[in-house]
UniProtKB/TrEMBL annotation:
Keywords of this entry: Hydrolase
Residue ranges occupied by any GAF domain in the UniProt entry: 141-297
UniProt cross-references to Gene3D superfamilies, sorted A to Z: 3.30.450.40, PPM-type phosphatase domain (3.60.40.10)
InterPro entries assigned: Bact_Sigma-Reg (IPR052016), GAF (IPR003018), GAF-like_dom_sf (IPR029016), PPM-type-like_dom_sf (IPR036457), PPM-type_phosphatase-like_dom (IPR001932)
Name of this chain's protein: SpoIIE family protein phosphatase
All residue ranges annotated as the PPM-type phosphatase domain in the record: 314-525
Length: 527
């Protein structure tokens, strides 16, 4: 084959010219030769099975007459890359010189083309592995990851069905085994126990090597273990068997194993084995990443939860609080709320958000919450509480800043509040009208140094709603639009606002898939 990417190049032209010169009449003189472009179907029609061999072919007389009426001879030079080729066609009487030349060229280039075909096949395998690898290593959800890996590997090796048995460690340190299936419904294995570390399965679970068998039922290790002494009754038929360990590249620990089966013997080759081992390698990297992410996510979630208070009962108030860690993504750790009983029956309502996510943000959140609570208990005004905490943040070794809305309600009086760069609170009056409190009052804590105070009436029948940006902002909706949606939703909330109503509000605004923390405080002033 010419194997050029863009049709015949200079080398192809030299070959065509040289071959054309070999087409001669009975007297030994060259005869006129016409170049006829061919598509893939025409090459196949002229060359038959020879189209898959070396790229220079002399068609037999019957094929030539059927495809090129009136031609007396032809040399087909196929071009795999272009999916076609060129025929050098003579219409005068010729001798057999061109056949000898074509056979010589085919013999000289056949090995090269076979090598190129092999390299292309290997490149296709590598490309497929890289594609699977990119998809797997970009996935952080373990359930989705293992199913994708099982499906990809089962397809790649041509198995009738595949399974991936893998180990996880729960938050109590207990190890347990799960599995995914591909090619068959889960019910096909639901009544069978997990594979044990028998002679057949041991190499996979111990990580000592890949097992490939043309017929596992004739393997010397098969059928020796009670209670089944082989496959359990009702098990899917397995003759061809391939099993590959999934081993962590960082710890060397066996994370699990792929198992592939086919009812016919001799279905898995060395190439299938290499594909399965390649996908197992990518799966190990992806599982390491996903488990590390899950551990940090759980640590951050538990750390955040442990630092959040139980809201106390407040006389004259119906109170609902919510903290929801991010349900997708990694944005956990910075949001918090607090309800602080103060002297003379007053109550401080606090909501805030540390800029950043993860364990660091959760730690800063705990420090800031404690500081605000401490200054609040000293009886300082809202502006002074925020000023002292901002100065404290400024002394941290690593610069950070925090948004915070702080309001104090004293019986018989209204609200006194200050806002350090946080989203405005929503006040729903008894007549249903809405008012936003604290818009753009000051810079965040750690940045600003002066925080102004304002007051608002808070008579019986009024609702106060404090929230963080996870409620109103998402990848598909900007903050302004989210606040508009929130205001529209608050109008229809019951009085007093119930826990169920708050849960419904979150579900409505986020669609159940919030990618950031959400903290929420709903306060209803009773008579």
């Amino acid at each position: 084959m010419l194997d050029t990417a863009d049709g015949p190049g200079p080398d192809a032209e030299t070959l065509l010219t040289a071959l054309a010169a070999t087409v001669r009449g009975p007297d030994g003189r060259p005869v006129p030769v016409e170049r006829v472009p061919l598509d893939g179907d025409a090459v196949a029609a002229l060359c038959g099975a020879a189209a898959d061999g070396p790229g220079v072919v002399v068609p037999d007389d019957d094929r030539l007459a059927a495809r090129l009426p009136g031609a007396t001879a032809a040399i087909v030079v196929a071009d795999r890359a272009a999916g076609g080729g060129v025929a050098l066609v003579a219409r005068a009487t010729v001798d057999h010189t061109h056949r000898v030349a074509a056979e010589a060229v085919a013999a000289a280039t056949g090995g090269l083309h076979r090598a190129l075909a092999g390299l292309r096949a290997e490149a296709a395998v590598i490309g497929a592995l890289q594609s699977v690898g990119r998809r797997l290593t970009a996935q952080l959800d373990i359930d989705t990851l293992v199913q994708d890996a099982t499906d990809a590997a089962t397809t790649a090796v041509g198995a009738a069905f595949g399974a991936f048995f893998y180990n996880l460690v729960d938050r109590f340190g207990e190890s347990y085994t799960l599995y995914t299936l591909s090619g068959v419904p889960r019910e096909a294995f639901s009544r069978f126990p997990m594979p044990r570390n028998t002679e057949v399965f041991a190499p996979t679970f111990d990580g000592t090597g890949t097992v490939r068998s043309d017929d596992i039922t004739s393997d010397r290790r098969f059928g020796h273990n009670a209670p089944y002494h082989g496959m359990p009754e009702g098990h899917l038929p397995v003759r061809s068997y391939l099993a590959v360990s999934v081993i962590s590249p960082t710890s060397g620990q066996v994370l699990g194993g792929f198992f592939f089966g086919h009812p016919e013997p001799g279905r898995f080759t060395g190439r299938h084995e290499a594909l399965a081992e390649g996908i197992a390698g990518y799966s190990a990297i992806a599982l390491d990443n996903a488990q590390l992410y899950e551990r940090e996510r759980n640590l951050t979630r538990e750390l955040s939860r442990s630092m959040l208070p139980e809201a106390p009962a407040v006389p004259g108030v119906e109170l609902v609080t919510r903290y929801l860690p991010a349900s997708t993504g990694h944005k956990i750790g910075g949001d918090w709320f607090d309800v602080v009983p103060l002297a003379a029956g007053a109550t401080a309502y606090v909501i805030g958000d540390v800029v950043g996510h993860g364990v660091t943000a959760a730690t800063v959140m705990g420090q800031v919450r404690t500081a605000i609570r401490s200054y609040a208990l000293l009886g300082l005004a809202p502006s002074e509480v925020l000023r002292h905490v901002s100065a404290l943040l400024d002394a941290f070794a690593d610069p950070t800043f925090v948004t915070c809305f702080y309001a104090v309600h004293t019986p018989g009086d209204g609200l006194v509040y200050a806002n350090a760069g946080h989203l405005p609170a929503v006040l729903r009056h008894a007549d249903g009208t809405l008012e936003q409190l604290g818009e753009a009052m000051a810079q965040p804590l750690g940045v600003g140094s002066t925080f102004g105070e304002r007051t608002a009436a808070f008579p019986p029948g009024t609702d106060l709603l404090l929230y963080t940006d996870g409620l109103v902002e998402s990848r598909s909706r900007d903050l302004t639009e989210g606040i508009e949606w929130l205001l529209a939703a608050v109008v229809g909330l019951p009085r007093p606002i119930t826990g169920e109503a708050c849960d419904g509000l979150v579900a409505t605004l986020t669609g159940g898939a919030h990618d950031d923390d959400i903290a929420l405080v709903a306060v209803h002033r009773t008579a």
